[in-house]
């Protein structure tokens, strides 16, 4: 292997020593700096081709250091390192030119894989711009809402890294498609994407399905998902459904970097990228004892939450129009647009099935009708029967003036818990605002996303308040 000079910038001596030892054993020449100033001086006298930069330094910020190192050497390939699972910092580093990032603690396999990807040009930050834009290739990727722009940025930033990704969201929000996208744009894409649905695999078969089994008197030989994912991506769909005993087994696999099949005694070394999904809130599962806290913190390196469609505003219209065009092109139909009434129904509907439900509605329309505009009569019966609601108007038809905090409802406090009071205040504020989440948020001086999140956790339909 060629002796590619690598600059390590980290103020923790043990980290520098460990990284140096691993990389020198792999045949790399290593330059070590403990501060921003030392890194700049070293890069000036011995320009490296690759740099591992901690994002927290005693004399400055790692993101700005990456920017300055690149200004001096545009061919440099920086890799950001952080001790905190902070996607925002990782995204900032990637925007400033980092080709990848690592989150401490870092295993030798993660370090060498990331370095190899950077050297060979397989990191996401080194792919052509059109390839990076393809990261948005999963159902529900269309939309201009701020929350989805953040999701797209995060997917783009982390897809090419080796970091574990934990995707959460309601059924139908696109978790499986997002996982497939992350794999397809990663350095593990030449390996297999092995999916194991933890919620549908029978309990008596889950162990063999995960770790495999050797042939025995009462068991057939089976190669497990972990072994099949070696060199690729292990995708554990609905990981919170894993039995506690198998959660412990998975944690041991991640810590040891090896797997022992049922009936075997010799561990098999493995290396894979891990992607997990969950429909229930994993932190709730942890707090209620159904999911191991140590496993959760191990796999929750990069959390990505796909928001429900009902919280995405005008995204539902953008998605519907794009899907209508796609279906009409495929099925040779004449539809070109949605009527105003249909748009109103789509905006008012709660979409419990999320993007998947919207896709099925449009497929139904395209299969049963053929004309230039989708009209109310073309929709499935349950949507046609929906009662359209609007924000309340004054006697002259004008929108009521913005409420002040003095208009907020009075709630009795005695004998109530804080959680009970908070919920009642929020629900009353939304009712007083005619079901408008943004208006209620202004009265309560919080962001609308905070209210959407709380309503989602309480199982409340966002637009249900308008229909009371």
UniProtKB/TrEMBL annotation:
<dbReference type="InterPro" id="IPR001789">
    <property type="entry name" value="Sig_transdc_resp-reg_receiver"/>
</dbReference>
<dbReference type="GO" id="GO:0000160">
    <property type="term" value="P:phosphorelay signal transduction system"/>
</dbReference>
<dbReference type="GO" id="GO:0043565">
    <property type="term" value="F:sequence-specific DNA binding"/>
</dbReference>
<dbReference type="InterPro" id="IPR002078">
    <property type="entry name" value="Sigma_54_int"/>
</dbReference>
<dbReference type="Pfam" id="PF00072">
    <property type="entry name" value="Response_reg"/>
</dbReference>
<dbReference type="GO" id="GO:0006355">
    <property type="term" value="P:regulation of DNA-templated transcription"/>
</dbReference>
<dbReference type="InterPro" id="IPR009057">
    <property type="entry name" value="Homeodomain-like_sf"/>
</dbReference>
<keyword id="KW-0067">ATP-binding</keyword>
<dbReference type="InterPro" id="IPR025944">
    <property type="entry name" value="Sigma_54_int_dom_CS"/>
</dbReference>
<dbReference type="Pfam" id="PF25601">
    <property type="entry name" value="AAA_lid_14"/>
</dbReference>
<feature type="domain" description="Sigma-54 factor interaction">
    <location>
        <begin position="141"/>
        <end position="367"/>
    </location>
</feature>
<keyword id="KW-0902">Two-component regulatory system</keyword>
<keyword id="KW-0805">Transcription regulation</keyword>
<feature type="compositionally biased region" description="Polar residues">
    <location>
        <begin position="387"/>
        <end position="402"/>
    </location>
</feature>
<protein>
    <submittedName>
        <fullName>DNA-binding transcriptional response regulator, NtrC family, contains REC, AAA-type ATPase, and a Fis-type DNA-binding domains</fullName>
    </submittedName>
</protein>
<keyword id="KW-0010">Activator</keyword>
<dbReference type="Pfam" id="PF00158">
    <property type="entry name" value="Sigma54_activat"/>
</dbReference>
<feature type="domain" description="Response regulatory">
    <location>
        <begin position="5"/>
        <end position="119"/>
    </location>
</feature>
<dbReference type="InterPro" id="IPR025943">
    <property type="entry name" value="Sigma_54_int_dom_ATP-bd_2"/>
</dbReference>
<keyword id="KW-0804">Transcription</keyword>
<dbReference type="InterPro" id="IPR002197">
    <property type="entry name" value="HTH_Fis"/>
</dbReference>
<dbReference type="InterPro" id="IPR011006">
    <property type="entry name" value="CheY-like_superfamily"/>
</dbReference>
<dbReference type="GO" id="GO:0005524">
    <property type="term" value="F:ATP binding"/>
</dbReference>
<keyword id="KW-0597">Phosphoprotein</keyword>
<feature type="modified residue" description="4-aspartylphosphate">
    <location>
        <position position="54"/>
    </location>
</feature>
<dbReference type="InterPro" id="IPR058031">
    <property type="entry name" value="AAA_lid_NorR"/>
</dbReference>
<keyword id="KW-0547">Nucleotide-binding</keyword>
<keyword id="KW-0238">DNA-binding</keyword>
<feature type="region of interest" description="Disordered">
    <location>
        <begin position="387"/>
        <end position="412"/>
    </location>
</feature>
<dbReference type="InterPro" id="IPR027417">
    <property type="entry name" value="P-loop_NTPase"/>
</dbReference>
<dbReference type="Pfam" id="PF02954">
    <property type="entry name" value="HTH_8"/>
</dbReference>
